[in-house]
Amino acid sequence: MSFQPFELEHYQSRWERTVEVNLADSSVQCLVTREWLTADEQAALLSTGLYYPEVNGSAGLRQRIAAMYPEASAANVLVTVGAAQANSMVCQAILAPGDEVVVVSPGYRQVWGLALNAGCHVRELILTPEDAWRPDLDALDRLITSKTKLVAIVNPNNPTGTILTDVERARVVAACARVGAWLLADEVYQGTELGGQPETRSFWGEYDRVICTNSLSKAYGLAGLRIGWAVADRETIQALWRRHEYAVIAAAAPSMTLAELAVSPAKRSQLFARQEALTRAGWDVLKDWLAGQGGRFSVVPPDATAIAFVRYHLPIESVALADHIRTATGVLVAPGSLLGTEHHLRITLGYEPAKVRGALDRIGASLDRLVPVSAAG
Ligand SMILES: Cc1ncc(COP(=O)(O)O)c(C=O)c1O
């Protein structure tokens, strides 16, 4: 069995430090530590003890996380190194060779790759822009069989920015329940809703075999803390914790100090409002730019996230196009094929609007040299 690398993350880590503008990421502009902490909070950070912290996450942090999930307690929470580690522990704990795993495509592809590397059969629920990225629920029913061990969804979704409706949520849960499959709900984009929509409800509590993962990387703008978590029934948390001890022992103590502040209700609202303002401004910039692109791009308006998953109507594969853009302009964007869908680029908009506009203009000019606007279909 050959190893499946995480191609999207590798593409980003390969280029993100040498380009001028990185729009391949999927967070908004992350904060600088001093920017969001009062003097007392900075003092709390400096007083953090640097012995090994509580392995499953500091009690205070787990309590605050649990408070965001109805009827959960700190025993239902494991603090991890980002949602990435939480997802990884879930796959390690649940999957065995030969299991079937259902994922959504386009998608973040982490569970897709982890499942392949665990010797599982991965079946993809394909979303299309023609259906506005809405899931075909009958197709989902057909994909989930008695051999399905895990169904992995990302809600709101990366890269499409869609949020499942109540009907879609109920069908996903019912399809899992029909065969007793685990449902992994990656909810890292909770809190990035656009247009004054309510915060996306967690799947927690909707099914006894649900595991929810989340982190501080997206809506909170604190990716560098590398703090995430899993919320599940106590037995499952114990199973994840046993793997966590092998993988990392514990998340970092200073990060947990800051995380406890970030998830406090007041700070959380403040961070979410900042993220929303950046996202809204970024979308205004994109809409304006697209209007001048002569139809060579199209995008399905998302419900959430600062990510534009832009379809281009040009005869070139997405890795080649992203490479052309990078070498011609110094702007990094993510090729759609690395998220499972060709002829798309993932572009992050949650940065200073002038920076985003400047980078988009450079992309437009570089495409004019490749295929003039008048020749694009
Ligand atoms: C859907 C999804 N899940 C998990 C992650 C990992 O995030 P982190 O480990 O920073 O929490 C990402 C990062 O892009 C993501 O998009």
Fourth CATH level, the homologous superfamily of the largest domain? Type I PLP-dependent aspartate aminotransferase-like (Major domain)
Q: What is the CATH class name of the largest domain? A: Alpha Beta
Question: What order do the helices and strands follow?
Answer: HEHHEHEHEHEHEEEHHHEEHEEEH
Say which molecules are bound, naming each kind only once. Answer: pyridoxal-5'-phosphate
Coarse shape: globular
Class by alpha and beta content: alpha/beta
Number of strands: 13
CATH fold group of the largest domain? Aspartate Aminotransferase, domain 2
Q: Note the total helix count.
A: 12
User: Strands of the largest sheet, in order across it?
Assistant: 2-8-7-6-5-3-4
Do you know the CATH architecture of the largest domain? 3-Layer(aba) Sandwich
Number of domains: 2
Can you give the mean pLDDT? 96
- Helix proportion range: 25-40%
Biggest sheet architecture: 7 strands, mixed
Low-confidence stretches: none
Distance between the termini: 42 Å
Report the radius of gyration as a whole number of Å. 21 Å
Characterization of the model:
The chain is of the alpha/beta class. It has two domains: 7-31 and 269-375, Aspartate Aminotransferase, domain 1, CATH 3.90.1150.10; 50-267, Type I PLP-dependent aspartate aminotransferase-like (Major domain) (Aspartate Aminotransferase, domain 2, 3-Layer(aba) Sandwich), CATH 3.40.640. Helices cover 39% and strands 15% of the residues. The protein is built from twelve helices and 13 strands. The protein has helices at residues 7-15, 39-46, 59-66, 82-94, 110-117, 137-143, 166-179, 234-247, 253-262, 265-291, 318-329, 353-370, and strands spanning 21-22, 77-80, 100-105, 121-126, 148-154, 182-186, 210-215, 228-231, 297-298, 307-312, 331-332, 334-335, 344-348. It has a seven-stranded mixed β-sheet with strand order 2-8-7-6-5-3-4, sandwiched between helices. The mean pLDDT is 96. Pyridoxal-5'-phosphate (PLP) is lined by residues 26, 82-84, 108, 154, 158, 186, 188, 215, 217, 223, 228.
